[in-house]
Amino acid sequence: MDPNIITNTDVVQLPSSVIVIAVSCHGIFDLDTPTELDTLSKGPTFSFIKAIQAMNEKLTGKTPKVTLFDVIILAKDLQGNQAKIENSIKHYGLPISRCWFFNNEEFTQSLKSTNAKLFLSMDSSDVCKALQEGVPAALLCPQTQAEGDKEQVANPFKVLLSGDVMGLPEEKLSEAGLSQPQLQTFKAAKASMAEFAAVIREMRRHFAREDSPLRVTLMSVLGSSKEWASALLTARGLGLEVDEAYCLAGASSGPILNCIQPHIMCYDGLYSVTEVPALS
């Protein structure tokens, strides 16, 4: 069965040359709290949409009629909430051009048919599936909302790159005893890194560094300082400017993640790994 595709007539439909970003609606809206209202409350990753919107608006202010992204929403097994999702997009004035509603079994096929250059979700299993199908994908990260911050506006747009994917050889992870699923996720992330980098590079090139609405961080969790340095060189080779970089050398990533609060994070399956020491 083909997905049910709904077009948002409140926004301009963009040409096919624009980068398509497919975003899971889980996290953008609160789908867990029952409500009698016709609209949904904001979810923990709602600020991602606001950050993308701010970036597009800043670009439009610099170069009229130029838009960076075409954001579409993917809703899996949520046909019962279809009307509320559509109403919520219009209620919050979100720059989302289309909604795709489909069943869980149709996930891979539906994702590929969107022609998305990047898929984003809070669900790591869906991110893994996308990566293994060759679709660049990253984790959507919840943002801590300051008390009284009703608008949940987040700027700049923060991207966290995996220094391990860029600098750590697969052989070292295999020798360290990581599980086969972890290795498969790591390999898939490594294979899609060039395409992921191309999307981030396209974001970056439209803005001067001093007024950029984008901030890129590179973090190595398990790699040594040598592999961290190699990752920085790889990033440079991919045309990526990095604003800050961290080498944790096996230390917990939690404190740094809480400080950075990225909107999206390159998923390599290693951020939660605690049983493997730094790989030197």
Which tags fit this structure?
alpha/beta, Rossmann fold, 2 domains, 10-stranded mixed sheet, disordered C terminus, magnesium ion binding, 5-nucleotidase, Cytosolic 5'-nucleotidase 1A-like
How would you describe the overall organization of this protein?
The structure is a single chain. The protein is of the alpha/beta class. Helix content is 35%, strand content 19%. The radius of gyration is 19 Å and the shape is globular. The chain folds into 2 domains: 4-140, Rossmann fold (3-Layer(aba) Sandwich); 157-265, no CATH class. The chain is built from 10 helices and 10 strands. The chain has a 10-stranded mixed sheet with strand order 1-4-3-2-5-6-10-7-8-9, sandwiched between helices. It has helices at 46-62, 82-91, 107-113, 124-132, 163-167, 170-175, 180-191, 193-205, 225-237, 254-260, and strands at 4-7, 19-24, 69-76, 96-102, 118-121, 137-140, 157-162, 214-220, 244-247, 264-265. The longest helix has 17 residues, at 46-62. This is Cytosolic 5'-nucleotidase 1A-like. GO terms for molecular function: 5'-nucleotidase activity; magnesium ion binding; nucleotide binding. One of its GO terms (cellular component) is cytosol.
Strand ordering within the main sheet: 1-4-3-2-5-6-10-7-8-9
Rg from Cα: 19 Å
Q: Strand portion, in percent?
A: 15-25%
List the domain count as a whole number.
2
CATH homologous superfamily placement of the largest domain: HUPs
If you average the pLDDT, what whole number results?
A: 84
The biggest beta sheet is recorded as: 10 strands, mixed
CATH classification class of the largest domain? Alpha Beta
Poorly predicted regions? 146-150, 273-280
Tell me, what's the shape? globular
- Per the CATH scheme, the topology name of the largest domain is Rossmann fold
